[in-house]
């Protein structure tokens, strides 16, 4: 039996990055539901890319939700938002190949993100990075913390 998602949205802001790119990376997410706030971060000590870290942030945030939810997900990555809202349907139809017949990069994470989205009602929003949106700024700080913590391991 599938439970209907809550009508009060979970607000999620995500960010990810590497220093340098490619290089070690980190991701961060801020989840808000009513008065509840959860901050998450993680990272990769080994070489990764900005795009992989930008994908990991919403994956980890969505995988954390323990019941079907209405989610408003904010990202400053046009790559993530474009991929999930526009390009993925064509990629799947083409056997995970781009319109130019090249293999889709980060296909493992795109498939994981798709699966993480399946039980939720999602609306995706793009926000300009480093533009003063408080939870986007916090997600950026969490991504930096995730990178630093990964480097200490």
Automatic annotation (TrEMBL):
One example GO MF annotation: nucleic acid binding
Keywords carried by this UniProt record: Cytoplasm, Endonuclease, Hydrolase, Magnesium, Metal-binding, Nuclease
Gene3D superfamilies: Ribonuclease H-like superfamily/Ribonuclease H
Location within or outside the cell: Cytoplasm
Residues that bind Mg(2+) 1: 15, 54, 76
Catalytic reaction annotation: Endonucleolytic cleavage to 5'-phosphomonoester
GO term, biological process aspect, one: DNA replication, removal of RNA primer
GO cellular component: cytoplasm
Top-level taxon in the UniProt lineage: Bacteria
Matching PROSITE patterns: RNASE_H_1
Predominant subcellular localization, coarse grouping: cytoplasm
CDD domains reported in the protein's UniProt record: RNase_HI_prokaryote_like
Keyword DNA damage: no
Pfam families: RNase_H (PF00075)
InterPro entries membership: RNase_H, RNaseH-like_sf, RNaseH_domain, RNaseH_sf, RNaseHI
Keyword Transmembrane annotated: no
Cofactor(s) this protein cannot do without: Mg(2+)
Subunit structure: Monomer.
Functional summary from the UniProt entry: Endonuclease that specifically degrades the RNA of RNA-DNA hybrids.
Protein name per Swiss-Prot or TrEMBL: Ribonuclease H
């Amino acid at each position: 039996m599938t439970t209907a998602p809550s009508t009060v949205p979970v607000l999620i802001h995500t960010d990810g990055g590497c220093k340098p790119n490619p290089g070690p990376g980190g991701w961060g997410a801020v989840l808000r539901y009513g008065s509840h706030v959860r901050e998450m971060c993680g990272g990769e000590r080994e070489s990764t890319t900005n795009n992989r870290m930008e994908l990991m942030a919403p994956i980890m945030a969505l995988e954390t939700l323990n019941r079907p939810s209405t989610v408003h997900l904010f990202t400053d990555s046009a790559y993530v938002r474009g991929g999930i809202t526009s390009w993925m349907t064509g990629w799947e139809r083409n056997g995970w190949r781009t319109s130019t017949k090249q293999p889709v990069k980060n296909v493992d994470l795109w498939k994981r993100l798709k699966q993480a989205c399946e039980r939720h009602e999602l609306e995706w929003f793009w926000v300009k990075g480093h533009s003063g949106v408080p939870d986007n700024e916090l997600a950026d700080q969490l991504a930096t913390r995730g990178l630093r913590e990964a480097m200490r391991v």
